[in-house]
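Q: Protein A?
A:
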Amino acid sequence: MKHSKNIKRRAVAIYLFMILLALVIIIQPLYTQIFESHLYNTENYNVTRTVTVPASRGNIYSDDLSLLATSIPEYEIRWDAKQVDKELFLDEVEELSSKLSELFNDKPASDYFDYLRKVWAKQSRYALIKRKVNYNQLKLLKQFPIFSEGRYKGGFQYKQLNIRQKPFQQLAGRTIGYHKKQSKSVGIEGAFNYDLKGKNGERLEHRLAGNEWMPIRERESFPGKDVITTIDIRFQDIAHQALEDRLYFHDADFGTTILMEVATGEIKSIVNLKKVDEDKYVEFYNFAIGRSIEPGSTFKLASVIAGLEDGFLQLDDSVNTTGGKHSFYDRVMRDSKKGGYGVISLEESFTKSSNVGISKLINKHYKAKPSQFVDRLYSMGINEPLGIALSGEAKPAIRHPKQSSNWSGTTLPWMSIGYGIKMTPLQILSFYAAIANDGQRMKPLFVKSIMANGITEKNYNPEVLNPSICSMTTIKKVKQMLEDVVEDGTAKSIKSKQYKIAGKTGTAQLIVDGGYDNQRHLASFVGYFPADNPKYACIVMINDPQENGSYGGDVAAPVFRTISDYVMNTDLSLQSTDTIEKRQIPVSKDGFKRHLANIFNTFDVPTSSDDDRAQWVLTKSQKEQVKLQTRNITRDLEKNKMPNIKGMGLNDVLFLLENYGLNISYSGRGSVKEQSINKGENIRKGQNLTIVLS
């Protein structure tokens, strides 16, 4: 009996224990959920995290492998004082403080000394030393006292960031573009982001006091591939300068210019400049591909081709310009010349850019059948976008009478002279380039190839959009007309004695407050050169010039001439063998040795060098050779000394010294004649340098 009672008591005790245990199991999660949930739902609970280590983006190069965009590593330096023993710290902290002060030149050594002592006293695990440290500084820091012991004995830590930089600053800035996760990517950076972005890594970090995170381990990232563009940095530079100078001269709103190879479609330069204040123009928006405009008289070429192809027009057809004005229903068409040109031929109407002459002839033959005119335009493909690799291309707008509800009797005559339609500058240029290319229209090409680790992975070859926009008979006729525009027409001011230019001026009235304003214009010139064997086509558009003229021949054409002169003088393929053989040993700008050597080798000009390892050189023309003398520019900059830059070209100077951190202003053109900071003087980042070119 007694034994039975003991068993019952044990059973009850076990039962009560099980109930209590069950209550604990039930209550504990409830308590945690109710009273401690905030601890689990805040960052304070997480002691480790995994963060993405962005891959270094690939580089973007010009066609001669000059850097247009690159990722520069930037470092954040931290110090784990807990890893440093007392003896090491006391022995070397003073020297470390002096070296930090000397390297960064931001505060005295005593400030660094006091800071490091406080950090060590608190045994801080992730104390900030310096942000925005470059790679050369990082290499020096790794050799400093205490830091040279590494992470686990010296507490030295750093985190890498990749900063995107454009060595040539604004040059082709909008075409190079940018890539941003939070907004729409544009330009080459956006179009080729898949190749450029690389493969991200990961970093495991540990939370320290003060909400600081210390790296524990890292899985490396893999850099992106490189993009080789079609841009010629020499042509880009001269086009930028020429357009900018003209914008200032005319006090214009914005301007764009594009240079393209007619046979390949390769874009060799593209500039887009917008006035952002009273005295500054910047690469603001890619007007060349993204903005449709009414082309004005440059569209007369398409109208004439249509009439010639349909058999309605001949070059010697006569037309009466009727005193320089003509009424189409309730609208009056006017010529720029008061009183008009009298009775003139179709060819003269084109070369003199007579609005009345062209519109009367087109209206005469197509008035009853406007669809035939527009269909002929469509057959040339100018109503379709070019389909370029870069995003943001605006679609052409050329109305069709069967598809437009607002077609009227005045639509055709105004369309014939480039009003009531819209095209981008690049689309217009592509059309003119097709004429230069005997009718074959090429797709504009911005990128040549993709490279990884110096090996070409993909090539982008020229692509034909239209093998023949019109007959060769018509091509020959309009080529002669385009030459006549420069020889004795509206663009005769840019006629050259050395080579022939073919092209067409344009002066379109701008729409202001819903109507055309005859005091505000878009001035343009588009053409190709050399006209007898075309290699390049170029367009220049300047919007709303306020001073010193408004016509395309006065405003835009001079920019074209500046660009074409430079290209003709520098493109070796345009130089005759006889001319080259007769030249004496040339005089050149000083600069990057590899580039200069390639040029001299092309001309079979013998050279000698005082140091085969030299990167930057002086050139000295001697009787039978060019001597390349070493410039110690890199060494001077590493010592924070001003190098001798006299004789160097602007691009090289900007690349070297702006990357160093100097603020540069310049005047003139050519090579450096004067520098405001003399050779050998101490320099610092943020310092101003003025140079004079001649």
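Q: Protein B?
A:
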Amino acid sequence: MEQKTDSKTPAMWADWQKQLADYWVDSLQRSVIFTDILRKRGNNYISHIRGGQPPVLTYNYEMILNAKHFERPVNYALVRISDRRRRIEPAPESPDRRRSAEVQRRPKRPIVIVDPRAGHGPGIGGSKRDSEIGMALAHGHPVYFILFYTDPFPGQTMADVITAMEKFLEKVVELHPDADAPALMGNCQAGWAAALASAERPDLVGCLVLNGAPLSYWSGVAGVNPMRYRGGLVGGVWVNSFLSDLGNGVFDGANLVANFELLNPANTFWTKQYNVYANLDTEEERYLSFEKWWGGFFMLNTDEIHYIVRNLFVGNKLEKGQLELREGRKISLKSIESPIVVFASLGDNITPAQQALNWIPRVYSSVEDIRRHGQVIVYIVHKDIGHLGIFVAGSVAKKEHKEIIGNFDMIEFLSPGLYEMVIEGDVKNENFTSAFEPRTFADIAAYDDGAQDETDFSVVDKVSEANDNVYQLMARPWTKLWTTQLSAEILRWLHPLRTQRYLFADINPLMRPVKNIASIVRTHRTPAAPDNPFTALERDCSAFVENTLDIYRDWRDRNQEHLFQLIYGSDWLRGFFPPPEPASPAETSDAEHADYDRRLLAVAEGGHAAGLIRIYMAVARLGQQVKRKHFEIGGEIARTHRVLKKLRPAQFKKIMHEQTAILQADEDKALGALSVLIRDKNDREEALGVARRLCLVDGVYNDAEKVLVEKIRKGLGL
């Protein structure tokens, strides 16, 4: 037995030596190739800068309007996406298939997409074929994109930017006079910009989509969302003023990107690079493509960054209705008349779900207030996707964005109120549909841990203003005295996020041999076997480094949170800067909505068409879930009924909103007046049949539906 064991020992050692040699060869080859990938990243960075940092769109586009020629020029432009993708056609067995020719004759609403100007350049919303732009094209919509350039015009303000966006929307409406008003999709920071434009010019927007957009900046869960504390820990907006002054009136977007990177040091300093090192054959193209966007740093001027940080990040004035875009004119989110779709994720650590959703119960006093306002708000919450995944992930594009874009028309026809969009079916095989379930403010509150901690941020706002005033008065003159355009450029080029790129480019003489060496290595590439124990040990070491950095991150975030609470929760500081009493949202006034209130009195007005639409909306309001098939059957009736088919889409929507308001005011009275609207007996019997057909669309005729049909029957006098 001992002799047998001894005979295996040399063979085992030989095998281990071979595996070690294989691993070392593989590791050295990967090191060379990885260095070459960094060289390519550096070259791409320099090439991108020399080319003016154009959008990273994978789609062709044509210029429509360039805001540099406006009376108040800004570094924005409107382009039209000129690519065309295969349209998403209904399944052969679907009723929609039979109506496809008719549907396609009706012009599709245009979709306008805006990417965030938050340090990076535009185009991430269309950097892949499976993207927001891709889904919009697949649904047959004309697609427009609002892009921006690296450097702002001297003196441009946020008011100028929003004015430019409004002019872009006017142009889109002009180009599509027969289509519904455009859908406006704002990603991240572009979300609040889109909301401002929609509030100022509600006539230009048909549907507003906010993807990972922070509108409630103070919100978040204690111990989970640390980014919101950073403004307070540095003393507020004065830091941004200081950095802008060092930039000679220009704020470097690389500073914003650095803040994002510090949120997750494990990914920034290790995981992202190691993933490429460990998977060279599959990750190189994806890594270089993403880094082209991630390493494109865009500027803001002093007025822009000061306005954003002071009024939004620190002041949180948008949700409170205190934001002034133009002097003397406060912006209210209640001014938005189009349906609003909010897309958030529980895995988003940059725009937590609370920051994306909490503005709703802060702006409206109740769900009934939303209804009284005639507003439709739909939200959808992803369970785990990260912030960038909301705009970049192909899986999200093919599911959430596909359903959002594919349901614009249905969302417009929902009764006013608050809904959650629920995607049902076989998601893996892309065989799914959407339903809209009524929700309450309690459902939104369930994502949060309360608003008690937000009083600290009101103290931050006051401290920030005081610190900025001190800086403006005492330090800013000296900073500007010693700052020149040359010093500003030197500081920008010495930023670590730039140096780590161009130092690995071919402009560094030490990197020039790497290309040839890497080419030879790629030719003779001999990767280690997947089951090589040293490769497994490498992965374990990588996991250890990642876990260590995660532990550091958690320790850092926990201590920053405690320090924030210690400073801004102290009675001493609150004595100097007392927080205001929390204010409840104001109810929508009768004066504000006089036209709306007058419609409530029109119970017996409107005729045959109004009666049929009233029945349709009564059934739509009944269920706990509004499904696509309810909308499809309703649409089929609207297109084929001898009375309803004569209505133009705009007329139909107008009557629908009026009848919804009447039903919400007094449903029993509204249904009781049906016989006044539909006078012919045969028409009444037909209308009752329509009600029953709508109730039976899901194959179930429940008790609530029976009660409603009975009310309709009595109201029709049958």
